[in-house]
Amino acid sequence: MQAQLNPGIAYITGNGVAQDDRKAALWFAKAAVQGSVTAQYNLGLCYETGRGVEPDVYAATEWYEKAAEQGDAEVQAALERLEEYWEDEP
């Protein structure tokens, strides 16, 4: 898991590699499906903000919820941000 998370962090920050949001999202996805809470949160953030992927509040919510299910308390703020979207949804 960590082996997939580290390149994602490097690409999103440009630390040691050329900054590349698309590559970051791909690495976060690899780590997220393996259960990395940090990757799940970061992938949710990518979907929420459109960094490296098409913006998608459904995917963002899904990944944030997966992180929350594993006890990530920080992801609660992200879910609350998206809650406003869901309240406006017809």
Structural commentary:
With 90 residues, the chain is mainly α. It has a single domain (2-88), classed as Alpha Horseshoe (Serine Threonine Protein Phosphatase 5, Tetratricopeptide repeat), CATH 1.25.40.10. It is 72% helix and 0% strand. The chain contains 5 helices and no strands. It has helices at 2-13, 21-33, 37-49, 57-69, 75-88. Helix 3 packs antiparallel against helix 4. The longest helix is centred in the last third of the chain and has 14 residues, at 75-88. The chain is globular and about 40 Å long. The protein starts with a helix and ends with a helix. The model has no long low-confidence stretch (mean pLDDT 91).
Summarize the structure.
The chain has 90 residues and is mainly alpha-helical. The chain has five helices and no strands.
List the helices and strands and how they pair.
Layout: H1 2-13, H2 21-33, H3 37-49, H4 57-69, H5 75-88
From the N-terminal CA to the C-terminal CA, the straight-line distance is 38 Å
**Cα Rg:** 13 Å
CATH fold-type name: Serine Threonine Protein Phosphatase 5, Tetratricopeptide repeat
The global form is globular
The proportion of strand residues reads: under 5%
Q: What is the average of the pLDDT values? A: 91
Instruction: Assign the structural class, choosing from mainly alpha, mainly beta, alpha/beta, alpha+beta, or little secondary structure.
Output: mainly alpha
Biggest sheet architecture: none
